[in-house]
Amino acid sequence: MVSFLRWDSWLPWSCVFFTGLYLLGYWVVFARRWPPGAVDRFKAARCCMSIVHGTSTSMAAAIYMLNLFYTDKQQMSWSPTPSSHNSSTMKFWLASRLGAANTRFEEAIMEYSTAYFLVDLVHYVLFVPNQPLFVLHHVFTSSYMLSCRFYTGHGAFSTIILFVVGESTSFLQNVWTISLLTHGAKLFNLLNVPFLIIFSIFPGVLTPWATWQLCLYFLFSREASAVVPFPLALYWMWSVFMGISGSLYWVSTH
C-alpha cells in the first residue's frame, strides 16, 4: 500500500484537520464580519489554519532540534573549548544529521506540514487566484517535502531547520494580516513596525544563513550525493531560494 495512504500516515488526517480549521474560521470565527463569498472572509479563514500550522511546526521543530543537539552532544562528549573546535564540531553535527535517514518524527512533521500547504494551495487556486507568488511557493515547498518523505528517505533534518527559521514569524504575521483585513487600526499600528522588522530579519538574515549551510552539504559534499540525487538536491535548494525571494518581495511591498 502506498505509504501516505496507510492508516498511521499523518498526511490524510492532517488534510482533514487543516480543512476543519479553515471551515471553522470561515463559518464561525469570521461569519459575522463578512457576507458569504467575500474574499476577505476566505483570507481571514486561511489565517486560522496558518497560525496553528506555523506556531506548532516552529515550536515542535525547535524543541526537537535542541533535544537532538543535546543528546548527540552528550553521546559524543563534545568539549566546550576551544571555539574553533566547536565550530568544526557543529558543522560535523549538521552534516551527520542532514545525511541521516529520516526519523519517524521528521516524517510526521513533514506530512503534517505538507497537508497544510496542500489545503492552503487549494485555497489560493479557488478563492485568491491572483496570487501566483504564493501558489508557486506552495508548489515548491510541497514537492520538496513530498520527495524528501516518500522518495529519498533522507534529508528531512533540512526541513526541521527551515521550519525553525521560516515559521517562527507565522503567529505575528497572521495576527498582523487579520488586523489589516478587519481594519483593526490599533492592533495594526501596534504590530506593523515590529512585525516588518522581525519578518525582515528572519527571511533576510537567518533563512539565507540556514540555506547556505544546506547548500554546502547538499551541493558540495560527496556524502549528500549518496542519499539525495544531485538534480533533486539542486531543486530543493532552488525551492528554498525561491521561498526566500518571495518572502523578501512580500515584505518590500507591504
Automatic annotation (TrEMBL):
Keyword Cell division among UniProt keywords: no
InterPro entries for this protein: At5g14285-like (IPR040327), TLC-dom (IPR006634)
Domain called TLC: residue spans: 39-253
Keyword Ubl conjugation tagged: no
Keywords for this protein: Membrane, Transmembrane, Transmembrane helix
Location, primary (coarse class): membrane
Membrane protein topology class: Multi-pass membrane protein
Cellular location(s): Membrane
Transmembrane segments: 12-30, 51-70, 148-166, 195-220, 232-251
Organism domain of life: Eukaryota
UniProt GO cellular component terms: membrane
Protein name: TLC domain-containing protein
Organism in which the protein naturally occurs: Ceratopteris richardii (Triangle waterfern)
Organism phylogeny: Eukaryota, Viridiplantae, Streptophyta, Embryophyta, Tracheophyta
